[in-house]
Amino acid sequence: MSVLTVLTAAIAPGVALLAYFYLKDRYDTEPISLVIKLFLFGVLIVFPIMVLQRALVHGLGEDPFVFSFLISSLPEEFFKWFLVYFITFKHASFDEPYDGIVYAVAVSLGFATLENVFYAFLNGSSFSSLMIRAFLPVSGHAMFGVMMGYHLGKAKFTPEHTRKHLLLSLALPVFWHGVFDYTLLLSKAYWIWFMVPLMSFLWLRSLRKVNRANAKSPLRVATREDQVKI
């Protein structure tokens, strides 16, 4: 494949998934400039995370469990969570629970997209292998972003449970990301039998959270009231 074809195939899944979750916002879409900014920040954090992970590998070794949960999952999800929390949690545009999902997915897919580009060029990937990565790591990062953003939205709009949901907004993505990586590492020859059910579960779980977040939007009530007045 040509360089342009590889680059397009590596970038397209992340952009398509971001567009999908952006358009799932039923009541008040977020400023596209802010979403793009978060996506680009997600791209940029790939570099410090790579350096940190290399240091952790030297210090902790490459045991599959340690690698999956402490070297891969924890740094990646923490950096993403840090960005989403400090850039958007008190932002005026974060005015409904679903917004947290949009912002967390944007950062997650920025990270996943550059990671996918590196993989494509460093491993000489075929188009079919890039499509497999679209189904696995790229969409996996999107699912982890949905979990993170859902609980950030709950943390902001249920003040009595803020601490609980802030903890869940980091702990759940770290846990499921670790499970994802650990499953891949332990089932290299038979990964499809484990990953298809896991990804199906994560997608169904994420879509339920998308619907719940939209259902809790204060703008939903306002829209209904406006329709009644008309």
From TrEMBL:
Keyword Transmembrane: yes
TM helices/strands, residue ranges: 6-23, 35-53, 65-88, 100-122, 134-153, 165-184, 190-207
Enzyme Commission code: 3.4.-.-
Superkingdom, natural source: Bacteria
Protein family (similarity comment): Belongs to the protease PrsW family.
Protein name: Protease PrsW
Keyword Protease: yes
GO biological process: proteolysis
Pfam families given in the database record: PrsW-protease (PF13367)
Membrane topology, record value: Multi-pass membrane protein
Annotated InterPro entries: Peptidase_PrsW_arch/bac, PrsW
Primary role: Involved in the degradation of specific anti-sigma factors.
Location within or outside the cell: Cell membrane
GO MF term set: peptidase activity
Family matches, as PANTHER family: PROTEASE PRSW (PTHR36844:SF1)
UniProt keyword annotations, A-Z: Cell membrane, Hydrolase, Membrane, Protease, Transmembrane, Transmembrane helix
